[in-house]
Amino acid sequence: MTGSAPPRQELGKGVERVAGRPGSGTGGDDGRAWDARLGWAYGLTADDPAERAAALLRLAEARENVRAAVTRFNEWLRTPVPGDREGHRKAEYLKAYAPVQESQGYLLPDALWNRPRGDVRAWPGLPYALLYLEWEAKYPREWTRHAKKWGTKERLVRDVAVAGHDEAVRARLSDLVETVVRRRYRCKDREYVRVARVLDGEDLRARLTAAAGSDHPWARRHAAYVLWLLDRPGVPDTRSVWRTWNTEEFRG
User: Fold this and answer.
1) CA dihedral sign of residues 47, 53, 59, 62
2) Fewer CB within 10 Å, N side or C side of the chain?
3) Contacts of 229 by beta carbon, 8 Å cutoff, 6+ apart
4) Which of 163, 158, 189 is nearest to 176 (CA)?
5) 151-210: pLDDT as tens digits
6) How far apart are the first and last CA of the chain?
7) How far apart are the C-alpha atoms of 116 and 99, rounded to whole Å?
8) Are the CB atoms for 219 and 210 separated by under 8 Å?
């Protein structure tokens, strides 16, 4: 995924339009720079309600900074210039747009947009991509209220569904898969089948087997379906396959 050029029209409330796809202006940063900007965001998944409240306050402040930067950029766009300066104005676009990108680097999920091309396993933003997904898994109501971006969730899950992650990342991804199969379906959850397939192994299958034998009807159904797909790597995870499996295979 590559970075996007600045827009040639005013930016609206959907600031995701600004940056497009999953690290806006953050591609060259190392892990320390990411931690300096977003280390506070780990509080979003804390068990302590006070710690989460403090992190949500930081999130709101960062979002307001993005809105202010967007407002200034839109004002700049609306400023008329003489015709003979139009070429110079075009050259100033990147400079005028830079504060928007910079402010997005302090906000989730905006900082995760426009991930540069390359191996996601080496991306310094990967811990925060996982954090964003973990927040949605652990506190879905707070995530939905404060940072819901279904498209970003979908792209991030697809991005991290690659083999070769280190053990720490594999453990976090396994926890995500287990959490997702044990709950009522949420938008884009089916993308986690991709993750399950690259993680397939004894540990994950043991977790899924336990979920498939639980008392929770959603967990039984979801986990059994994922296990069935793991045994059939050539079968696509489509709505048609899901419906057929529910009708012909699932014994609940």
Assistant:
1) negative
2) C
3) 193, 196, 197, 235, 237
4) 189
5) 999 999 999 999 999 999 999 999 999 999 999 999 999 999 999 999 999 999 999 999
6) 41
7) 19
8) no
* Cα–Cα distance for residue pair 100/26, rounded to 1 Å: 12
Residues in the chain: 252
Rg (CA), the chain: 21
- CA separation for the pair 113, 75 (Å, rounded): 24
How many whole angstroms separate alpha carbon 156 and alpha carbon 112?
9
Tokens of 77: 């766009």
For residue range 85-143, list pLDDT tens digits in order. Answer: 666 677 788 889 999 999 999 999 999 998 888 999 999 999 999 999 999 999 999 99
